[in-house]
Amino acid sequence: MDADEIQLRYAKGERDFSGADLSRASLSKLDLQQISLWRANLSKADLSATNLSGADLVGANLVDANLTQAILCGANLGDANLSRTLLSGANLNSTLYNEDTKFPRHFDPESAGAYKIAPQVLLAGANLSGLDLSSANLSGANLNQADLWKTSLKKANLREANLTRANLIGVDLSGASLSKASLRQSNLFRADLRSCNLLETDLKEALYDETTKFPQDFDPTETEMYLIEPGASLPEASLSGANLSGVDLSEADLQEADLSQGNLFGIDLSNANLRGTKLSGSKLWEAQLSGADLSEADLNGADLWLAVLKGASLSGASLRKASLFGADLSSATLEGTSLKGALYNEATQFPEGFDPSEHGAYLIASGVSLQGVSLRGADLRGASLKGANLSKSDLSHSDLWGVSLEGANLEGANLLGACLIDAKLNQANLSGANLHGAELTGATLKDIDLSEVDLTAAALSGAIMPDGTIHH
Question: What distance lies between CA 249 and its chain's CA centroid?
């Protein structure tokens, strides 16, 4: 079989070339994604700059092959022989290998971003989404907080594995062994666990929905798992850091539950009972909270960008340093609500007659005066602060990506470690400002006097300097 035949058959939709003899074949720069070359002979083949993403190369002979600049993302190199293979510039991000895979001498696959699939391996936080790990032996493996979204783990050995807080949305675990494994606080939305061995499996606080498929005779309601659905009863539930993006929990009872630091983007919590609920640091972008009872809730540092809180009760709630850009709080009850340090913009809607500035909130807009104000660590991406007075303000470690600061007064401001990528600072006053360690990549600094600015360790690559030149 030669390169022309491979290309022709691949173009017609064929993907299985298992056992093919392609030694010395010239396959450079071809797009062969998802191809199966199981136990194929590719010795001395030219695969330079070839796209082999997701390829099955299990047991393949790649001795002396040229894989320079090749893309092997998500490919499976289990049992493959890559002795003396050229791998300069090859992309092995999320490539799989096992204990029997042979690499060139002195080549470190882990440093190249590849994942070893074997018992007892450390894969905590690894991105294994969408990969085929069917029948893999990962017994005792540490997969804590790993991303296994839509991964195939059919018939995999996960006995005693640590899958705590793992993203298992849409994962196929049918026929897998999870005996004595920990799936505490994992997300099992749309997961398939049919015929799965769940003997002594720890499923405490794991999330599931109506689409999750369990083994016959297994009743999740008899466990300490959380069913996520409209009207769910979850008082005092421990859901800190959970990914509930886009979930419908309307009319749910979450009184005094812990949802802090969660990803709640687009969540529907309309008419939900959230009295005393912890939502500090949670991302509630575009969340639907109309009519929700948030009395005494902790929303400190929460990001409520474009969230809808019409008719919500926030009596006694704390929104200190919360972000309310574009949020709709019209007709919300704000009696006794703490807004100290909260941020809002001209698109934020408050009840008629309510003045947020009188309650300690800060308006982020062009021309405002925020002299001496602490905005440390604030997320102000894309905001317009043209002509604003920010003298002696604390903006250290804040995210100012793409912010418009043209003509702003930043005299004596603390911008230590701030992110100012692509920020527009034309004609701003930075006299005495501290920009130590700031990220100014691509920022515009035209017509600025930088003589009294601390730019120690600042990143200026691609920035337009005061004289109009681009910093290299």
Answer: 22
Q: How far is CA 270 from CA 131, 338, 418, in A?
A: 36, 22, 36
Please check whether residue 94 is in contact with residue 113, taking contact to mean a CB–CB distance below 8 angstroms.
yes
Any idea how long the chain is? 472
Q: What is the pLDDT of residues 257-292, one digit of tens each?
A: 999 999 999 999 999 999 999 999 999 999 999 999
| Rounded Cα distance, 260 and 96, in Å | 35
Q: How far is CA 348 from CA 98, 328, 355, 443, in A?
A: 54, 6, 12, 28
In the three-class reduction of DSSP (H, G, I as helix; E, B as strand; rest coil), residue 56 is classed as: strand
Share of the chain above pLDDT 90, in %: 97
Neighbours of 326 (CB within 10 A): 18
Whole-angstrom distance between the N-terminal and C-terminal Cα of the chain?
A: 49
Structural domains of the chain, ranges and CATH numbers in brackets: 1-116 (2.160.20.80), 118-227 (2.160.20.80), 364-472 (2.160.20.80)
Q: Please write the tens of the pLDDT for every residue from 158-173.
A: 999 999 999 999 999 9
Residue 1: what pLDDT?
75
Q: DSSP string of 256-323? A: T-B-TT-B-TT-B-TT-B-TT-B-TT-B-TT-B-TT-B-TT-B-TT-B-TT-B-TT-B-TT-B-TT-B
Model's pTM, two decimal places? 0.86
